[in-house]
Amino acid sequence: MIFGGITITEASVIGLIVASLQFATLLYLAALGETIAERAGVLNLGVEGMMAMGAMAGYVGGVASGSPWIGFLVGGLAGALLASVHAVAAVALGADQVVSGLALTILGLGLANFLGDSYTSDTRRSLFKDVDIPGLSDIPWVGETIFSASPITYVAAALGVLTWFVLSRTSIGLGLRAVGESASTADSAGHGVAAIRMTAVVIGGAMAGFSGAFLTLDTVGAWSEGITVGRGWIAVALVIFGAWRPGRVGLGALLFGFTLALERRLQPFGIEFSPILLSMLPYILTVGVLVVISYRARNQPSPTPAGLGIAYRREER
Amino acid sequence: MRRRLLLVVAAVLAFSLVATACGDDGGSTGGASDDVTAAWVYIGQPGDAGWTFAHDQGRQAAADATGATTLTVENIAEGSPEFEQAVRDFIAEGADIIFATSFGYMDDMEKLAAEFPDVVFDHATGFKSNDTNFTNYFGRVYQPRYLSGMIAGASTTTDTIGYVAAFPIPEVIRGINAFTLGAQVTNPDVTVQVNWTSTWFDPAVEGDAASALLEAGADVIAMHQDSTAAGEAAEAAGARWVSYNSDMSAFAPSAYLTSAVWDWGPYYTSVIEEVGAGTWDATPYWGGMDDGIVKLGSIASDVDAALVTQVNDVGDQMTAGTFDPFTGPINDQDGTERVAAGVSMDDGSMLGMDWFVDGVDGSAGG
Prior knowledge:
The structure holds two protein chains of two kinds. Chain A is built from 13 helices and two strands.
């Protein structure tokens, strides 16, 4: 297909969708984890560090065991372990969540580089294979993209549905949200604030670790220092963009993933538009959502968990 | 509570500093240059298989050859206060030479060179110098780029080569142009399609950029960044690949065709020897294949033997100085003649190159 100097082939369009799903999966796993932590009232700016740990541990676990699935679990475990530092500092000890989270990013990046040093330039690969959904993968276009994706894309979608269900349809989710809105009220109602918050942070860390492991076991295949390149921060922005709701965060992940994939395809498509401007789009959209949220906050309840970022100590109530 | 928080944060920060810090020492074998201490500031890490890897290989070779003590620091961002601190630390440790391996260190190098007149400041890829203790060095990597283009041009069956490009600066543009001119020697119909990533190292993006070019019809991929991701994308798609910085064939053995590589060892050795002997002077260095600072990497075994002979022939002419890739007639993308027939481009024009030769598909403005 050629029109006005723009060349778009079927392979290009399919590639665009496949790459969008790849980036969306990467961002969604981390953003979903951060959503859980923030809905419990704990801001964790350590996503980038947890992702790096997951990327390193995921790669090492994958090539050592020969199974990307084991690598994926090891990556999640590494993210959860690092997150527990934040859980202790910011929840149990009541440290400033911003400071502790930023320290976690520095620690995670440094630790991943240190522990993974001998695995850079390693040519071994432990890669997930795309899964064809029987029957559906034969459908033209849709089948080759959505129904022939990485197994982790399906895992991410399933985790999204599970998170939505637990948060909005179960008593566990109700308790978690109560803790995130007002810790003292939730405490009076008999919810264990510290236990719920720490669990949420650790689960969030595991999912950031999964995201990193997806990077080294699927998208890239290799571990190398600096491989996350700020994607953890995009995940943090994505939580705000999605207004702390698993479904909207998922839609945001698809949109952000699409912009990332489109950036690399404007030039091959022959479209004269600056990819640098396009790369700013997720951030511009996030600021736009923040503006809308704060504007609407005057008339209706804000989607921001009211207790977000506020440490809870019973004796200071 | 406040104090406990500070302790936690301090412990976390201290631990991460320990985890990132790194240093190396060379051996010691005799001669005037084994008293020399040379220090390298790296933009990345030696394990990247790319730019910093090549510099670190050069450092090791120079340390082995001269017995000089060598110091390194990794991951120093351009324009960050860490750069100045790292250099001051090196000088406090007795460094006689500071090698800074990224363009953005230039202004800090100039400033520190004025402050420490007894230390040699040598800056890769920059253009500033003084007449006493500060100069710059680089290599004519466009020469092996041209040779790698000859092999790539003969390898494409779709007449389309994808080029995963870093930033639209003269160094990168010069490489794309030389590569394209080389490809045209073996394939007059070839188009080199450029995909800018605005990255030096982002494997996820660089691999995806290669995939995008392959989907659009390219069957050979060239690249400029420090990751091997573009090559691994080519490998997965059954396409071919020309690597850069170092011979990255181990990462994509079926895709690998050849590479344009750096060999900084001879240069670093000569600087250390000159400083040790007291004969060093601040003359900028821009060496080519004749000095061995740049060369063509290994060539895949399935490349036609006659072509290998032809490529080696042209390489010998470049080494002998009888052939220059930027010899006219050369037209730009608009068909305007940039270099007249029989004329070779001067160094100034090459260093400021901001246009693409005819045959490149893409914008030199990024």
